Known about the structure:
By secondary structure, the chain is of the alpha+beta class.
Amino acid sequence: MQNRNSAQRTLIMNIMEGNKMHPTADEIYDEARKADPHISRGTVYRNLNLLVENGSLLRVSVPDAADHYDSTLKEHFHFHCRKCHKVLDVPEFAPSEVLAAEEKLAQAGFKSLSHAIVFEGFCPDCSKNI
């Protein structure tokens, strides 16, 4: 029953589709309530977990902050601003050092399935005021 599509899950995916803001579960809940005032926080959290588990969304964990969610599934890195707490996509670059690290892991007998890299610091807007 958990894997069946639901109106609430569709609503969450509609909120996330093309969303570059990397919202938290609470921000997604607030947005979902505009369309469905009866949706519960628990329903949003359960559906977010299911969507992450089935590969429809990415969970971006940042230290000392709530998890954020991302609908961009291609491999990329994130930046967490310590001042405004936004999570942003890192502009694309060739992650050759990450690939080299994965090769070294493989040579040492590890089988890497994925990685998550979150840079921390101050975004361009917040850097101007420091």
